[in-house]
Each structure stands twice: as C-alpha cells, then as structure tokens.
Amino acid sequence: MSQSSSWQELVADKKRRQEASVPRNWLVTVPPDTVLDVTAFPEQCGLLSERELEITNTIDVGVLLQKLAAAEWSSVEVTTAFYKRAIVAQQLVNCLTEIFVEKALARAAELDDYLKTTGSVVGPLHGLPMSLKDQINLKGLETTIGYASWVGKYADKDAVLAEILYECGAVPFVKTNIPQTLMWPETYNLIFGRTLNPANRLLTCGGSSGGEGALIHLKGSPLGVGSDIGGSIRIPAIFNGLYGLRPSYGRVPYEGSANSMCGQDSIPSALGPLSNSLSGIKAFMQAVISREPWLRDPLAVRKKWDDEEYALAGHGNGQALCFAILWDDRIVIPHPPIIRALEMTRDALIAAGHKVIDWKPIKHLELGDAIFRICKAGALEDLMVATAASGEPILSSMSLTEEVIVDTSTRPDLIGISAYQLWQIQNAKAHLRKEYLDHWERTVEATGTGRPVDAIISPGAPFAAPPHGKNGNPNYTQVFNVLNYVACAFPVTKVDPTLDAKKPPHQFLNEADEVNYNLYDPITFQNAPVGLQLVGRTLEEEAVIAMTEIVDSALKATASA
Amino acid sequence: MSQSSSWQELVADKKRRQEASVPRNWLVTVPPDTVLDVTAFPEQCGLLSERELEITNTIDVGVLLQKLAAAEWSSVEVTTAFYKRAIVAQQLVNCLTEIFVEKALARAAELDDYLKTTGSVVGPLHGLPMSLKDQINLKGLETTIGYASWVGKYADKDAVLAEILYECGAVPFVKTNIPQTLMWPETYNLIFGRTLNPANRLLTCGGSSGGEGALIHLKGSPLGVGSDIGGSIRIPAIFNGLYGLRPSYGRVPYEGSANSMCGQDSIPSALGPLSNSLSGIKAFMQAVISREPWLRDPLAVRKKWDDEEYALAGHGNGQALCFAILWDDRIVIPHPPIIRALEMTRDALIAAGHKVIDWKPIKHLELGDAIFRICKAGALEDLMVATAASGEPILSSMSLTEEVIVDTSTRPDLIGISAYQLWQIQNAKAHLRKEYLDHWERTVEATGTGRPVDAIISPGAPFAAPPHGKNGNPNYTQVFNVLNYVACAFPVTKVDPTLDAKKPPHQFLNEADEVNYNLYDPITFQNAPVGLQLVGRTLEEEAVIAMTEIVDSALKATASA
Question: Cα–Cα distance between A535 and A371 in angstroms, integer?
Fold first, then answer.
C-alpha cells in the first residue's frame, strides 16, 4: 500500500491478506455468537485428528518437550496440530494477527531433520511451537501493535527474543492480537478487531496480551510470549485460566521488539511467558536466560538462572513458607469469586503445612497514580506521531460502541508535562518503592519464620473477566510493575453462580468501589476463569516460579482430596 | 540559621562551625601557596608520630584490615592516624566538608571493645576509617552537595550505604568536598571553596568526587566513597593517582544519599570506591554486596558477589586475555603523557602474555550528546529550586575568576524540554547502547581468543589534571556511563617534561581538539599523576576488578624489571 493510503484502505488490505493466509481446508463451521462458551469446540469440530487432539491436550510443556526431544512426536506434527487448533481459535475468538503456516512448518521440518541427522536437539525448546504477541518482531512479517498506520511495516530482523527462541529450537508459528497502543487491559484495535474470551464470548479476554490469553485458553498454543507494563501478561492469563509470569525489567530481552512510548525508561514493560502449565513458564525462563541475553540486549540483566534460588535457598528451602494474602487493596473490594479463590488458596496452603497471614497494602493509590502520570507524561504526543501517517482514530475506550478520537482541546489532562515535572513524579515513585520494600522487610516481625513474608498472594483484578469495555483501572497488577516485583499469575477456579452469589452492599470505600460492586452479578460472569497472582521480589524469578509451583500443588492436592 | 538568612550568612556560619570542628592541636604551619607539590608535607610536618606514619603509609587496605582484625593496630589508633593526616590534607588542599572527630573516635573505640570482648570482628571492614563524599547522608550531619541553601540540612538518618558500612565495621570519619550540584568535573562551591591537587596545587583535583581524590592522594583516608554520573569517581581517581571503580547502576545502594536532579532515571549516578589500593576497591565491593543491599534499596540489583566471575571464568580464567586500547575517541586526541601511559600499559600487558589490539570507538560524540541532553532536560529547574531558598548564585564555570548566575534569558539552551522530547533522546540512547554492544561482540573476529575483547583500556580524560577551570567536557568517562559499563581507574605514571614533550600540531579533528592541543605544555602539567580506565561490561564488577589487578601487576612488573 502506498504511504498516502487511508487507514480504512490499510485495514482492508491487511484483513484480506490475513484471510488469505489461513489454509482453506482449516476453515470450520463455527457456532453462532449466541454460544458463549466455545472451549469444547476445538475438540468437537472435527478438524483435528485423535493424535492432534492428544498432542494439543498435552498441556504440560515439559512433557511436550520430552516427546519432541525423544522424536516420539515430530515438530512438524506438533506444530501442525497446534496450528490447526490455533486457526480454529481464530475463527472462534479472533485472537491472531500474523499467520505464516509455510514458514513455521519449514522451520519445524528443519528441526526434525536436525534431530534425525545428529541425534541431538537444537536447544531446550526443540520443536515446540510458540505464539508471540504482535509486538515481537519476526523478520519479514508485519508488526502493528494495533496501529493501522503500521500496516505494511515489515520487520527487517528478528527481535532478540525471537532470535533466542529460534536458537533454543522453538517454532514461532503465529502472532497474536493486542489493543491499539498496547496500553489497554483488553484487546481491540481497528485492524484486527476484538478478541473474545473463549469461556464466555461476552467477556473480555483481557489485555494487552489478550490474543495470547484467548489462544492458549483454547490450547491453540502451548507457550506464548506477552508483555506487561501494568498487568498485560497477568490480566489475560488470569482471565483465561492460565499461568503467566511478569519478570523484572530486563530478565527477558526486549531489544528489537516494537513498543509504544519508546524512551519511557522509568517503568519499562517486560516480556514474559503465558502457558497452561508452570513447566512452560519455567522452560521458557530457563531457556531464554541460558542464552545470555545480556550479550545482545544492553538492558538485559547479567544474571544467570540460579538453581539455588529455584530451590528456595533464601526461603527455608520451601519448607513452612509464610504467604501473605492481600484480600483487597483498600481501593476496590474484589467480587465474591475472587475472595473465594483467595480463601481456597489460603486453605490449601495451610493444609500443605505453610503459614498464611494477611498482607497490609500501603500506598496502592499512590503507586497507581505514579504509573498513570508517568505514562501520561508524553503519551499523547506518542499516539499522535504513531497515528499521524494514516489519520486513524485514537481509541479512547475498549467498549463495544465508542471509538473516539482524543481531542486535545477537550482533554487537557492528556497534554504532556515537562521533563522536570516527570522527574518529580519519578522521584516520588522511587520513594514509594523504598517505603514498600521497608514495609515488606518489617513483616519479619509477623511471620514467625525468621524471614519476612516469602510471597504475597494477591488478586490480579477485583473481578474475573468482565464484559467487553468494562475492564477499568488495572491497579491490582500495575502496582507491582511500579515496584518492579516479579509476579506469576495462576488459575484457581471458575465463577460459579451457586458458590459466588452477590453479597449485600458493603460500606463503599469510594466511587470506584461502588461501581465495581454494581458490576457484579453471577450470571454475567458465569464460567469465567478465576486466578490470582503470586508476588515476589525484584529479580527473584526463580523463587517466584518455585513458590507458584508450591501454591499450585497445594491447590491441586485440595481439589483432589 | 533562620530560613531567611542570606547565602553569605549561611556560608559564613558553616565555615565558622567547620573551623571549630578541627582540633586546635592538629593545626600545622602549611607551606606557602607557591609550594605546588605538597604530597610530602604530611610526613614532614611533624604532626604524625612514626607509628601514625607507618599506619597511614600502609596503602594496601587488605593489610590494614588484617592488622585491625588481628588487633595489631586498634581502630582508635588507625582512625586517629588517618584523621590527623586528613586534617593536614585539609589545610593543604581544602578537601573536607564535615569533620566529626569525637563521633568517629567513639565508634572506633566501640569496635575495639567489641573485638577485645568477643574476639571477633564486627564485619569485613572492621575498624577501617572511611571518607565519604558530601552526598552520603550520616545521621545528624549536614549534607550540602555544594548548595549554600542546604547549609543546616541535617540528615535524620544514615544513607543505606552508610548503614551498611557501619554494619561492616567501617568508621566513617570525614565527608569530602564537591562542586555545587555535583555536576562538574572539578571541585568548587561557594561554601567550602575549591579543592586543589596535592601533586600540583595549580591543578584541579578533578570532580565531582574531588575531595575524595585529593584526600586519598595525601593518604588522608585509606578508602573513600564517591559517585559517578559522567566520570565523577574516575576523573578524580586518575587526576590523583588512585584506583576508582564506577560500578553499574544499582550494584552499590544509592538509597538515602542526597543528589541533584532526583528522578532523572535514565542515566543514574552510581556510588563507588576510591583508594590507593585495588585491595581497597575489592574489599569495599565485597563487603557492601555481602550485606544484600537489595533488601534496603529497591534500585539495588539482586546479584551476589560472584567468585567465579572474579576468577574470570568468562574470560579464559585470566590467561592470555585480549585487551583493546582506545588511543583516542576521534573527538579529542589525548596529550603526550596519556599516550605514553597507554603505550606503557600495552607493553606491560604484552610482556605479561596478553594480547593487545586497538579499540575502534563508535558514536562517542552521540553518546556524549545523549547524556548532556538528558541531564539538561530539567537541570535548570532543578538548580533553580535548589538554590531558591538562599538566592545563592548558580555557578556557570569552575574557573578561578568567574562566578556567574545563570540567566535564563541569555541561556535559552538551558531551558527544559518536554517529557515526550526527553523520551526521544532516551530512546536514541537505547539504540546507541545496542549498537555499542553489538560492536563489542563483533570483536570476537579480531581477538583470536574465541571471545570478544575482554576489556577496553581507555584514557579517562585527554589530559592529566589541568589547571583549575580548564577541565572541559568529560567525554572519555561519560560515554561509559551512558553505556552503563563498569570502569575502573588505575594509576600508571606521572607527567614528566623530559618524556612528555609537546608534539607538533596534528591535523585537528575539530575545534575542541585544537583547544585541547593548545592546553598542553609539559611544565604546566608537571608532576600530575597519569592514569587510565579499564572498561568491562554491565554488571561485571568482579571481572573488571580482577582484570584491573592483572593490568596493575603487569605495570608493576615492568616498572621493577
């Protein structure tokens, strides 16, 4: 398309090309929109063979990797199986952006040949198909991050993370949908449209890594990569019943990936994995770190994978841990299913021999304000520049009906501030981080373990996946971005109208709390997955994964008891 | 002093109090200003006993620590010895700000008691007196960073680093002089005046950690702490013949220390040690990191001291390394003594069995421009706020005669920019960092070791300590702050008029190069120490210290051959 194309023309062109990239024989007759829960459809639609269903239903990435390494399953058949299921997912919930079957299968075939010829795997992710948020550049493919203006912007090289994943033997096979700018906790843009929640298509899949969330929810990918600046990995992970890790800044290389607000150094976004299994999260982190990303990304932290930290050397070797539950952030009281999930987790941990105390949240309002103001400092100019080429509208909402151009004359709050003013907010943020760290350290007085609290168990949102356009301020996740704490989302249960009846109104903390209370009714949210996040310290990825395994095992033990 | 005091009154008050803090019996008759080299004076002045001279002449911090731990020397006598020498230094070169003899000796006595009673040391720095740049808060003492407006600003708690040093058994005993704002490579402010270079008092001691440089030069402190945002540790270290380490951001805790331009997150300043011995540098880094600073400073990197990295596991175990020499940065050609130091280092390394190739500098002008523009983004507002209370002038030069208030109407280049504009500069900086990293990695093709260059050997400035007011743009150091590389300054030689004759003019690279050429004559610079810096990668402190030890041993071996 020429530079002077209108945004509508760019979008139409891209949509045509996207449709053409789907193999005709993978099209299925999808259920009508009135069917809300489509999670069973991939198994019912008839497109996948028994073996392909067995492969794609193998949610433990560790097992998939073993079978691939043992050549029990070839990469071509595993990639084909997940590709077919991903294309079914696309037809159900619109979760994909880039589809490149030929390229992916060629790579899978190469890997199969290599294994056959040499008897060894290329790397720790040998043969595994992986989905990537439409932000991680793959050479020769477009990256739009939801801007119509970026249609036709082909990457001239792989992002550093993609390079590393290829070297580890992974097979990137689809890219996934995002909201315009990446800065929304839902997934809608003017090019690819909206991604839906497979458990209930009237609900959002979350965002900004929402395409990943919906795709993996439908087992259309065993392992995906998202990014998280305010919850963008954890929110879709939780809304889709997945595991999702938000690492510290720089533990996973960002270099060469597209982003909005480039140069905003103070609260950087972090790339991280989403999966149906914790073994997927761990395999990803170990594999990526093993490639020494700091030799290719100047912002990547020189810190090897630490097996001692994974063995919880700093946390009593994982025996008799003390977890603290954040029941609410004193801003918005979570809905009944979230409280139930916290109770289930508490009970499971106690049953497993751990200690559970309450977490006292401090300054969550101020922390949320810090990220809001830092991002807002130059966001409008950034948006204007990004959208100028095509004149596309700037979305001011993720709701079904509104698509509003931001008008600077009527939205003075979006006008940028000076560098000096930005420094003042950033300085205040540094003080908040110190206060929170000291607060955490002081819990040593309450744990009885001789250590401060080992991890916080917190809601990732005050609700399960809400209806489209209703996912407000992501404060339950973004406070931990401001603090740069490692946080891992994990699934707990589903909204169950019989267990999760609406409660009588409480004394509302503020207007937002009242709005949130009114949002809930068990029927609207029914069947939505319910998850939580486990929060550890900065650069404690190994320990956070290990502690999430402990929580997960405890929950599974209770469920099967 | 009341809030409405004029800056002159504040300064006069502070000077009176500072003078009163010096024990009367430690005053000496100092040589006249016409005596330029005063380095021998502390030994000649008669204030220090034989034993006090033996103690203070023990420049190896490792040895000092052994003797302290063995109670061969008590902390009280070691602290007294260094204190007396520091007060002599003060009278010679004006290097101190806070003097608190009683407090320091009381602490030393406590430590002696502890060792006597328990038989064990408090920590790895037991009994060692340490000097701190006037930026690191000590409870109950003032911190001015050179602002008259900050006189009377008493710290209500210790900086995290001070806390840690106390826990390690150190005895903070003086604070040292700085330039107003900390943002100059010399040391002059309106409160404490100018610090001089002990080797030649017509020359600058460098800055901003210039008080440290001059004090340690005169062996008035065995180990000091400075800070470095553009060379502020390395420049005074080199100008005074010392070792000085600029660690990566966050390896040493900054929390609780005063600073200018707080909230400027993109190129943070880093605290680090200066010493007459590399054993001092190593002891400091090991001790500080052993206290897990990340549990008190949210910006401190969770990374233990790594003995494997110190053993150069990633650098061929220290055998047959490949160093690259940066002969000049293609902006300003260094003066003859600096070139001679590079040649000496090259020859010594080759003689020690290492390989030496040339380093090709790329984008040093752009890197320098990035830090200049990022700091300038809000610097003026920051200065205005800091100086508003007393109306003190803002220095626009470090020269002897000029003290000029910055006038915004005539200095439009100092007016701040928008947050969005700042992001663009920060983004360009990120790209430069990637380019430099790739450039370094590609040297694997030239080293013959199978590894990229192990370290760069670079000038820390294109000159030895120049006359006051003549230390221009510190580009040889600041490029490595932008890149966040670890860099350790080390001494090599002294300016020697017979060896370092002025050369005929070369083809000047630009006006700055010509100005620099014209600055040199061997007599002006005579006797000035000449040092260099060894530059390694981000978060490679252990390896950089170990490689500087290798260079240092090689130089000493050549000198004694």
Answer: 18
Contacts of B434 (CB under 8 A, 6+ apart): A255, A297, A298
User: What CATH architecture is B7-26+36-307?
Assistant: Alpha-Beta Complex (3.90)
Burial degree of B128 (CB within 10 A; 0-12, 13-18, 19+)? buried
Looking at the complex, report in whole angstroms how far the Cα of residue B331 sits from the nearest Cα belonging to chain A: 24
Alpha-carbon distances of B428 from A410, A426, B367, B425, B431, rounded to whole Å: 32, 20, 9, 5, 5
Q: Which residues of chain A lie closer than 8 angstroms to B454, CB-CB?
A: none
- Domain locations in chain B? 7-26+36-307, 320-367+422-560
Q: Cα-flanking dihedrals φ and ψ of residue A321, to 5°? A: -75, 160
pLDDT at residue A411 is higher than 50:
no
Query: Nearest residue of B to residue A482 by CA position?
Result: B298
CB atoms within 10 A of CB A300: 25
CATH numeric code, A316-367+422-560: 3.90.1300.10
**Which class is A7-28+38-260+267-300 in CATH?**
alpha beta
Active site (catalytic) residues of A: 133, 208, 232
What single letter denotes the amino acid at residue A352? A
The answer to whether the Cβ–Cβ distance between A298 and B437 falls below 8 Å is: yes
Strands B193-194 and B188-189: antiparallel
What pLDDT is attached to residue B402? 54
Report the gap between the CA of B381 and the closest CA in chain A (Å). 7
Q: Which two tokens stand for residue A174?
A: 């689809």
Beta strands in A129-256, from DSSP E residues, in sequence order: 129-133, 171-176, 188-189, 193-194, 223-228, 243-246
φ, ψ for residue B107, nearest 5 deg = -65, -45
Q: Which two tokens stand for residue A373?
A: 């103001």
Average pLDDT across chain B, whole number: 95
* Chain B contact present for A264, CB below 8 A: yes
Write down the ipTM of this complex.
0.96
According to DSSP, residue A293 is labeled: G
Q: Does A263 contact B422 at a Cβ distance shorter than 8 Å?
A: yes
Which residues in chain A are contacts of B362 at CB distance < 8 A?
Answer: none
Instruction: Please list every residue in chain A whose beta carbon sits closer than 8 Å to the beta carbon of residue B377.
Output: 419-420
- Spatial contact of B456 and B362, defined as CB atoms under 8 Å apart: no
- Give the chain B residue whose CA is nearest to the CA of A294: B538
Specify the DSSP class assigned to residue B221: -
**B419-433 per-position pLDDT tens digit:** 999 999 999 999 999
C-alpha to C-alpha distance for B129 and B108, rounded to whole angstroms: 8
pLDDT score of B1 more than 80? no
Q: Say yes or no: A439 contacts chain B, CB-CB below 8 A.
A: no
Q: What is the pLDDT of residues A498-539, one digit of tens each?
A: 999 999 999 999 999 999 999 999 999 999 999 999 999 999
Domains B7-26+36-307 and B320-367+422-560 share a fold: yes
Q: Which residues, listed in sequence order, are joined to residue B224 by a DSSP beta bridge?
A: B131, B274
Model confidence pTM above 0.90: yes
Give the pLDDT band (50/70/90) at residue A412. very low
Give the three-class secondary structure for A455: strand
Provide the pLDDT for residue B412. 46
Which residue of chain B is at minimal alpha-carbon distance from A301?
B539
The pLDDT tens digits of the residues spanning B58-98 come to 999 999 999 999 999 999 999 999 999 999 999 999 999 99
Cα gap A357→A371, rounded to integer Å: 28
The CATH architecture annotation of domain B320-367+422-560 reads Alpha-Beta Complex (3.90)
CA atoms of A458 and A268, how far apart (whole Å):
22
Which of A273, A8, A419, A298 shows the shortest CA–CA distance to B441? A298
Q: Whole-angstrom Cα distance, residue B420 to residue B427? A: 10
Question: Is-contact B372 B346, C-beta < 8 A?
Answer: no
Residues of B designated catalytic: 133, 208, 232
